[in-house]
Write a structure and sequence with these properties.
Elements: H1 5-15, E1 25-28, H2 31-45, E2 50-52, E3 62-64, E4 68-71, E5 83-89, E6 93-98, E7 104-108, E8 115-117, E9 120-122, H3 123-126, E10 135-137, H4 147-156, E11 163-165
Parallel strand pairs: 1-9, 1-10, 10-11
Antiparallel strand pairs: 2-3, 4-5, 4-8, 5-6, 6-7
């Protein structure tokens, strides 16, 4: 017999209990929740001087040095799904670092509209990725949460001690 999704989730939660603190990566079902988590993480992690900018579908309207971003369109040097971090900025451009390749990108301030905050992503967006920092699997009681979401979320982590289920 196969376990119900509720039993699968309970079993996974016993193996990967949620630990205190913010996760670097948050996997969610809906874009609305993704935006909410990104906003909460931004408010928690923001530090130092900020640069006013326009990000795709995000409400914060600013970034800071160290701020994680995800490319959300292929545009000039940006790639959809690219994991980025703000290194610095000048009056006309923002200096980003690709988290995976470590390459540096210089983009115009206006090109930030092709990025969004990078703490949260949908399960679909995480496919094929390895998440090497604390990862929290959200929406385990959501009506659309399935065994496939659970399997996908668990398989993204590279270290079981850094994986939590909400």
């Amino acid at each position: 017999s196969t376990l119900s999704i509720a039993d699968q989730v309970n079993h996974a939660k016993s193996i990967f209990p949620q630990k205190p603190g913010h996760a670097r990566w948050n996997l969610v079902i809906s874009h609305m929740k993704r935006r909410k988590i990104n906003r909460n993480c931004f408010d928690f992690f923001v530090q130092g001087q900020t640069l006013k900018c326009r990000l795709s579908d995000e409400l914060v309207g600013r970034i800071y040095k160290g701020c994680p971003l995800i490319g959300c369109a292929n545009h000039k040097n940006l790639i959809n799904g690219q994991f980025l971090q703000v290194k610095d900025w000048t009056d006309v451009q923002v200096i980003l670092q690709d988290i995976e390749s470590q390459e540096t990108l210089n983009i115009a301030h206006d090109d930030l509209q092709f990025c969004r905050l990078g703490w949260s992503m949908t399960y679909q967006q995480s496919q094929g990725r390895s998440l090497k920092e604390k990862t929290l699997i959200h929406d385990t009681s959501h009506r659309f949460f399935t065994s496939a979401h659970l399997s996908l979320g668990i398989s993204r982590g590279t270290d079981k001690t850094l994986l939590d289920l909400a």
